[in-house]
């Protein structure tokens, strides 16, 4: 064999060897870290606050992790501060005259619009309630349906509660005497901890239907359905500032909300019973009305008929008495 032929044969042999090595490489499995599911990191959403119709981040820049009922990480939520509470109260106070002056019929339309938008996002609410509260789909669907229906129920009472709570008083004289309910003002709401959506709606609807504005401290461990509700409120004709939502650690927020001098009433259905006496002492500084569950342990059946009533609206109104001469 000539030298040229030998060089050609050697070159072909080396080429075949390189080709076989490449084939072996392509057939080998790709290296992974941990398991096959760890090929990427999930992008976790950080849920923001809802203040004045906007979705700002907390002024502290802090967040905390939110887990589902099985301990799996769902998302991050802003860790609100005292400054966020002050901003929310300011927004609620600013819009109060406008909201209180709306006609009862207009407030009824707006509450009904909330129900319409929640109906359109019902599947999302069901999934979030299932994850947050660890219940099955059937139970979660029942809770979400009840929350939607509760907005409709209170929308129907918007122009009727005044007749149920007010009256024409009999007097001995040539004048009329009317008792007329008026909104209390800015109401702080400590949302129920265990009921992430239905409990919140059951306490929020009777607050705003009469013309009050609200500053809400969401459930600490289950805030996501509440934040999704604010996304509905932002697109449902509710003026910015009527409802403001703060997420975070309750031990850092409750005292500031209860002690704020521009908050007229405090709905403490979500308050830890161990803090009851302390919060009452703080609230008494400006004679703040404090509403708490009638039961000792604070447990409430949110699906029961007692969880919705026109008299719950009465917890957040003041009765104004008007004297008017007959014939004038």
Description:
The protein is of the alpha/beta class and 328 residues long. The protein has two domains: 3-39; 47-325, Aldehyde Dehydrogenase, Chain A, domain 1 (3-Layer(aba) Sandwich). 44% of the residues lie in helices and 16% in strands. It has helices at 3-27, 82-101, 104-120, 122-133, 137-157, 161-165, 198-208, 224-233, 250-259, 276-283, 310-313, and strands at residues 46-47, 63-67, 73-78, 167-168, 175-183, 186-190, 213-217, 243-246, 265-267, 289-291, 317-325. The strands form three sheets. The protein has a five-stranded parallel sheet with strand order 8-7-6-9-10, with helices on both faces. A hairpin with a 6-residue loop joins β4 and β5. α4 packs across α5 (137-157), α5 (137-157) runs parallel beside α7 and α9 packs parallel to α10 (276-283). It is globular. The model is unreliable at 17-35 (pLDDT under 50).
Q: Which structural class fits the helix and strand makeup?
A: alpha/beta
Q: How helix-rich are the residues, as a percent range?
A: 40-55%
Based on CA atoms alone, the radius of gyration comes out at: 29 Å
Label the CATH architecture of the largest domain: 3-Layer(aba) Sandwich
Spans of 5+ residues with little confidence (pLDDT < 50)?
Answer: 17-35
Order of adjacent strands in the largest pleated sheet: 8-7-6-9-10
User: Please, what is the CATH homologous superfamily of the largest domain?
Assistant: Aldehyde Dehydrogenase, Chain A, domain 1
Strand-residue proportion = 15-25%
E-strand count: 11
The tally of helices reads: 11
Tell me the number of structural domains.
2
- What is the helix/strand order? HEEEHHHHHEEEHEHEHEHEHE
Shape: globular
Calculate the terminal CA-CA distance, rounded to whole Å: 132 Å
pLDDT averaged over residues: 88
CATH topology of the largest domain: Aldehyde Dehydrogenase, Chain A, domain 1
Major beta sheet, specifics? 5 strands, parallel
CATH C-level name of the largest domain:
Alpha Beta
